[in-house]
Amino acid sequence: MPVSQQSSKTVLTHPSGSSTEIHLFGATLTSWKVNGRERIFLSEKAIVDGSKAIRGGIPLVFPVFGKGKAPHVTASLPQHGFARITRWKLVNSSENQEIVTAQFGLDHSMISEEHRQMWPFDFELVYTVKLSADTLETHLRVQNIGDKAFDFNTLLHTYFLIPDASKVKVIGLSGVNYVDKVLQKSADQEGDVVIRGEVDSVYAKVKSNQIQIPYGSEQGGIQLTKYGLSDIVVWNPWTEKAAGMADFGDEEYHRMICVEAGQVAEFIALAAGGSWEGSQILSLFAIPQHTII
Ligand code: TA6
Question: ipTM, 2 decimals?
Protein backbone atom coordinates (compact mmCIF):
# COMPACT_ATOMS: atom_id res chain seq x y z
CA MET A 1 0.00 0.00 0.00
CA PRO A 2 2.00 3.06 -1.24
CA VAL A 3 -0.01 5.54 0.89
CA SER A 4 -1.67 4.54 4.14
CA GLN A 5 -3.26 6.71 6.79
CA GLN A 6 -4.31 5.93 10.35
CA SER A 7 -5.80 8.97 12.18
CA SER A 8 -3.07 11.68 11.99
CA LYS A 9 -0.32 9.37 10.78
CA THR A 10 0.42 8.96 7.05
CA VAL A 11 2.98 6.50 5.64
CA LEU A 12 4.29 6.63 2.06
CA THR A 13 6.10 3.45 0.98
CA HIS A 14 8.15 3.41 -2.21
CA PRO A 15 7.16 0.56 -4.58
CA SER A 16 10.80 -0.50 -4.95
CA GLY A 17 10.13 -2.55 -1.79
CA SER A 18 13.52 -1.54 -0.45
CA SER A 19 12.17 -0.18 2.89
CA THR A 20 12.22 3.33 1.51
CA GLU A 21 9.43 5.25 3.18
CA ILE A 22 8.37 8.43 4.91
CA HIS A 23 6.13 8.91 7.94
CA LEU A 24 4.19 12.07 8.69
CA PHE A 25 2.21 13.14 11.74
CA GLY A 26 -0.29 15.62 10.31
CA ALA A 27 1.88 17.49 7.81
CA THR A 28 5.09 17.18 9.87
CA LEU A 29 7.36 14.61 8.26
CA THR A 30 8.89 12.59 11.11
CA SER A 31 10.89 9.92 9.26
CA TRP A 32 12.59 9.40 5.88
CA LYS A 33 14.18 5.99 5.44
CA VAL A 34 16.16 5.12 2.33
CA ASN A 35 16.86 1.39 2.03
CA GLY A 36 16.07 1.10 5.73
CA ARG A 37 18.50 3.83 6.87
CA GLU A 38 16.90 6.79 8.71
CA ARG A 39 18.01 10.19 7.42
CA ILE A 40 15.81 12.49 9.53
CA PHE A 41 16.36 13.23 13.24
CA LEU A 42 13.47 12.84 15.66
CA SER A 43 14.19 13.37 19.34
CA GLU A 44 13.54 10.36 21.56
CA LYS A 45 11.64 12.84 23.76
CA ALA A 46 9.61 14.35 20.93
CA ILE A 47 5.91 14.78 21.76
CA VAL A 48 4.05 13.48 18.71
CA ASP A 49 0.39 13.92 19.69
CA GLY A 50 -0.49 17.33 18.26
CA SER A 51 -0.16 19.05 21.64
CA LYS A 52 3.06 20.86 20.65
CA ALA A 53 5.49 21.27 17.78
CA ILE A 54 7.40 18.07 17.08
CA ARG A 55 11.10 18.15 18.06
CA GLY A 56 12.54 16.82 14.85
CA GLY A 57 11.43 15.89 11.35
CA ILE A 58 10.45 18.71 9.01
CA PRO A 59 8.11 21.08 10.90
CA LEU A 60 6.55 23.70 8.62
CA VAL A 61 7.13 27.32 9.68
CA PHE A 62 4.32 29.70 8.59
CA PRO A 63 3.39 32.62 8.65
CA VAL A 64 6.28 33.85 10.83
CA PHE A 65 9.83 32.68 11.52
CA GLY A 66 10.80 32.89 15.16
CA LYS A 67 8.80 35.31 17.28
CA GLY A 68 7.06 38.12 15.38
CA LYS A 69 7.92 41.65 16.55
CA ALA A 70 5.40 44.42 17.22
CA PRO A 71 3.94 46.28 15.49
CA HIS A 72 3.97 43.49 12.86
CA VAL A 73 0.65 41.60 12.70
CA THR A 74 2.49 38.34 13.52
CA ALA A 75 3.71 39.68 16.89
CA SER A 76 1.16 37.74 18.95
CA LEU A 77 1.48 34.44 17.09
CA PRO A 78 3.36 31.53 18.69
CA GLN A 79 7.04 31.12 17.75
CA HIS A 80 7.33 29.85 14.15
CA GLY A 81 3.60 30.45 13.57
CA PHE A 82 0.59 28.14 13.67
CA ALA A 83 1.16 25.80 10.65
CA ARG A 84 3.28 23.25 12.56
CA ILE A 85 0.83 23.07 15.50
CA THR A 86 -2.42 22.81 13.52
CA ARG A 87 -4.03 19.64 12.14
CA TRP A 88 -3.80 19.51 8.32
CA LYS A 89 -5.92 17.34 6.02
CA LEU A 90 -4.58 14.70 3.64
CA VAL A 91 -6.26 15.96 0.45
CA ASN A 92 -4.76 13.81 -2.28
CA SER A 93 -2.33 10.99 -2.99
CA SER A 94 -1.02 9.18 -6.06
CA GLU A 95 1.68 6.75 -7.00
CA ASN A 96 3.51 5.25 -9.95
CA GLN A 97 6.54 3.00 -10.20
CA GLU A 98 8.91 5.95 -9.57
CA ILE A 99 7.21 8.36 -7.20
CA VAL A 100 4.67 8.26 -4.35
CA THR A 101 2.95 11.60 -3.71
CA ALA A 102 0.76 12.93 -0.92
CA GLN A 103 -0.78 16.40 -0.57
CA PHE A 104 -1.89 18.05 2.65
CA GLY A 105 -4.07 21.14 2.94
CA LEU A 106 -4.52 23.86 5.56
CA ASP A 107 -6.70 26.94 5.24
CA HIS A 108 -7.91 29.78 7.46
CA SER A 109 -11.10 27.87 8.34
CA MET A 110 -9.02 25.12 10.01
CA ILE A 111 -6.91 27.22 12.40
CA SER A 112 -8.05 28.04 15.94
CA GLU A 113 -10.23 31.08 16.59
CA GLU A 114 -7.36 32.43 18.70
CA HIS A 115 -4.91 32.23 15.83
CA ARG A 116 -7.51 33.58 13.41
CA GLN A 117 -7.91 36.63 15.64
CA MET A 118 -4.15 37.08 15.73
CA TRP A 119 -3.72 36.70 11.96
CA PRO A 120 -7.05 37.52 10.22
CA PHE A 121 -6.23 36.65 6.62
CA ASP A 122 -7.89 34.21 4.19
CA PHE A 123 -5.20 31.78 3.06
CA GLU A 124 -4.81 28.29 1.68
CA LEU A 125 -1.68 26.16 1.96
CA VAL A 126 -1.02 23.03 -0.07
CA TYR A 127 1.97 20.96 1.04
CA THR A 128 3.12 18.26 -1.36
CA VAL A 129 5.57 15.50 -0.44
CA LYS A 130 7.07 13.28 -3.14
CA LEU A 131 9.09 10.15 -2.36
CA SER A 132 11.30 8.57 -5.00
CA ALA A 133 13.77 5.71 -4.54
CA ASP A 134 16.48 8.08 -3.31
CA THR A 135 15.03 11.60 -3.09
CA LEU A 136 12.44 13.44 -1.00
CA GLU A 137 10.73 16.55 -2.34
CA THR A 138 8.71 18.86 -0.09
CA HIS A 139 6.83 21.67 -1.82
CA LEU A 140 4.62 24.41 -0.37
CA ARG A 141 2.11 26.59 -2.21
CA VAL A 142 0.66 29.61 -0.41
CA GLN A 143 -2.48 31.23 -1.78
CA ASN A 144 -4.10 34.48 -0.68
CA ILE A 145 -7.79 33.69 -1.21
CA GLY A 146 -9.04 36.80 0.54
CA ASP A 147 -9.38 40.46 -0.39
CA LYS A 148 -6.58 41.75 1.89
CA ALA A 149 -2.89 41.52 1.10
CA PHE A 150 -0.73 39.77 3.70
CA ASP A 151 2.96 39.06 4.13
CA PHE A 152 4.55 35.91 5.53
CA ASN A 153 7.71 33.99 6.32
CA THR A 154 7.98 30.28 5.65
CA LEU A 155 10.66 27.64 6.26
CA LEU A 156 11.15 23.89 6.02
CA HIS A 157 12.66 23.37 9.48
CA THR A 158 14.53 20.18 8.57
CA TYR A 159 16.33 18.18 11.29
CA PHE A 160 18.95 15.88 9.75
CA LEU A 161 20.14 12.73 11.52
CA ILE A 162 23.96 12.66 11.36
CA PRO A 163 26.62 10.37 12.81
CA ASP A 164 28.62 13.11 14.59
CA ALA A 165 28.01 16.87 14.79
CA SER A 166 31.73 17.49 15.26
CA LYS A 167 32.39 15.98 11.81
CA VAL A 168 29.50 17.35 9.76
CA LYS A 169 29.90 20.31 7.37
CA VAL A 170 27.52 22.58 5.49
CA ILE A 171 28.95 23.46 2.07
CA GLY A 172 27.55 26.19 -0.18
CA LEU A 173 27.34 29.16 2.17
CA SER A 174 30.88 30.49 1.82
CA GLY A 175 30.92 34.28 1.35
CA VAL A 176 27.24 34.65 2.30
CA ASN A 177 26.38 37.30 4.88
CA TYR A 178 24.64 35.85 7.90
CA VAL A 179 23.19 36.87 11.25
CA ASP A 180 24.81 34.94 14.08
CA LYS A 181 22.00 34.77 16.67
CA VAL A 182 24.37 33.31 19.26
CA LEU A 183 26.97 36.10 19.10
CA GLN A 184 24.34 38.67 18.08
CA LYS A 185 26.37 39.94 15.15
CA SER A 186 26.46 39.63 11.37
CA ALA A 187 29.42 38.41 9.33
CA ASP A 188 30.39 36.87 6.00
CA GLN A 189 30.74 33.09 6.08
CA GLU A 190 34.33 31.98 5.64
CA GLY A 191 34.48 28.53 4.10
CA ASP A 192 32.29 25.62 5.19
CA VAL A 193 30.04 25.77 8.25
CA VAL A 194 31.17 23.43 11.04
CA ILE A 195 29.68 22.75 14.47
CA ARG A 196 32.01 23.44 17.42
CA GLY A 197 29.36 24.76 19.83
CA GLU A 198 25.87 26.28 19.63
CA VAL A 199 25.11 27.47 16.09
CA ASP A 200 22.04 29.53 15.19
CA SER A 201 22.72 31.39 11.95
CA VAL A 202 20.44 32.93 9.33
CA TYR A 203 21.99 33.16 5.85
CA ALA A 204 20.04 35.57 3.65
CA LYS A 205 19.81 35.53 -0.16
CA VAL A 206 21.90 32.38 -0.62
CA LYS A 207 22.74 32.39 -4.34
CA SER A 208 23.68 28.73 -4.52
CA ASN A 209 20.60 26.51 -4.70
CA GLN A 210 22.64 23.43 -3.84
CA ILE A 211 23.75 22.94 -0.25
CA GLN A 212 25.80 19.86 0.61
CA ILE A 213 25.87 18.33 4.09
CA PRO A 214 28.70 15.75 4.18
CA TYR A 215 28.55 13.62 7.33
CA GLY A 216 32.35 13.54 7.51
CA SER A 217 34.94 10.73 7.52
CA GLU A 218 33.90 9.45 4.11
CA GLN A 219 30.34 8.64 5.10
CA GLY A 220 28.59 10.43 2.25
CA GLY A 221 25.87 12.92 3.08
CA ILE A 222 22.78 14.79 2.06
CA GLN A 223 22.30 17.32 -0.74
CA LEU A 224 19.62 19.96 -0.28
CA THR A 225 18.49 21.64 -3.50
CA LYS A 226 16.19 24.61 -2.98
CA TYR A 227 13.71 26.19 -5.40
CA GLY A 228 12.10 29.57 -4.77
CA LEU A 229 13.63 29.69 -1.26
CA SER A 230 16.35 32.29 -0.77
CA ASP A 231 17.51 31.81 2.82
CA ILE A 232 19.19 29.04 4.82
CA VAL A 233 19.17 28.65 8.61
CA VAL A 234 21.73 26.43 10.35
CA TRP A 235 21.02 25.37 13.94
CA ASN A 236 22.52 23.11 16.53
CA PRO A 237 21.55 23.81 20.17
CA TRP A 238 24.71 22.22 21.64
CA THR A 239 24.89 21.46 25.37
CA GLU A 240 23.23 24.38 27.18
CA LYS A 241 20.22 24.88 24.88
CA ALA A 242 19.83 21.08 24.59
CA ALA A 243 19.60 20.81 28.37
CA GLY A 244 16.94 23.52 28.37
CA MET A 245 14.56 21.64 26.04
CA ALA A 246 12.30 19.09 27.77
CA ASP A 247 11.57 17.40 24.43
CA PHE A 248 15.24 16.96 23.51
CA GLY A 249 17.75 14.53 25.01
CA ASP A 250 20.78 16.17 26.67
CA GLU A 251 23.20 14.34 24.35
CA GLU A 252 21.10 14.33 21.18
CA TYR A 253 22.80 17.44 19.80
CA HIS A 254 25.72 15.20 18.81
CA ARG A 255 23.62 13.48 16.14
CA MET A 256 21.56 16.22 14.56
CA ILE A 257 21.91 19.40 12.54
CA CYS A 258 19.13 21.63 11.26
CA VAL A 259 19.72 23.02 7.78
CA GLU A 260 16.55 24.87 6.89
CA ALA A 261 15.54 26.38 3.56
CA GLY A 262 13.01 29.18 3.62
CA GLN A 263 12.06 32.82 3.25
CA VAL A 264 12.85 34.26 6.67
CA ALA A 265 15.18 37.26 6.26
CA GLU A 266 12.32 39.27 4.80
CA PHE A 267 8.55 38.86 4.64
CA ILE A 268 7.01 37.89 1.31
CA ALA A 269 4.12 40.17 0.36
CA LEU A 270 1.16 38.38 -1.22
CA ALA A 271 -1.56 40.47 -2.84
CA ALA A 272 -5.19 39.41 -2.74
CA GLY A 273 -5.58 36.49 -5.16
CA GLY A 274 -1.82 35.99 -5.33
CA SER A 275 0.09 32.76 -4.83
CA TRP A 276 3.68 31.74 -4.02
CA GLU A 277 5.51 28.43 -4.05
CA GLY A 278 8.81 27.07 -2.92
CA SER A 279 10.34 23.64 -2.42
CA GLN A 280 13.39 21.59 -1.55
CA ILE A 281 14.64 18.26 -2.86
CA LEU A 282 16.76 16.13 -0.53
CA SER A 283 19.04 13.55 -2.10
CA LEU A 284 21.93 11.41 -0.96
CA PHE A 285 25.52 11.47 -2.09
CA ALA A 286 28.28 8.97 -1.42
CA ILE A 287 31.85 10.16 -0.98
CA PRO A 288 33.66 8.36 -3.84
CA GLN A 289 35.66 5.53 -2.35
CA HIS A 290 39.39 6.10 -2.91
CA THR A 291 40.47 3.97 -5.82
CA ILE A 292 42.93 1.40 -4.56
CA ILE A 293 45.80 1.18 -7.02
O1 TA6 B 1 15.61 27.44 13.24
C2 TA6 B 1 16.39 27.77 14.34
C3 TA6 B 1 15.48 28.26 15.45
O4 TA6 B 1 14.85 29.46 15.10
C5 TA6 B 1 16.32 28.41 16.72
O6 TA6 B 1 16.47 29.76 17.07
C7 TA6 B 1 15.55 27.59 17.75
O8 TA6 B 1 14.61 28.42 18.41
C9 TA6 B 1 14.90 26.55 16.85
O10 TA6 B 1 14.46 27.30 15.73
C11 TA6 B 1 13.84 25.73 17.50
O12 TA6 B 1 12.68 26.49 17.72
P13 TA6 B 1 11.45 25.75 18.48
O14 TA6 B 1 10.37 26.79 18.55
O15 TA6 B 1 11.08 24.57 17.64
O16 TA6 B 1 11.98 25.32 19.82
Answer: 0.99
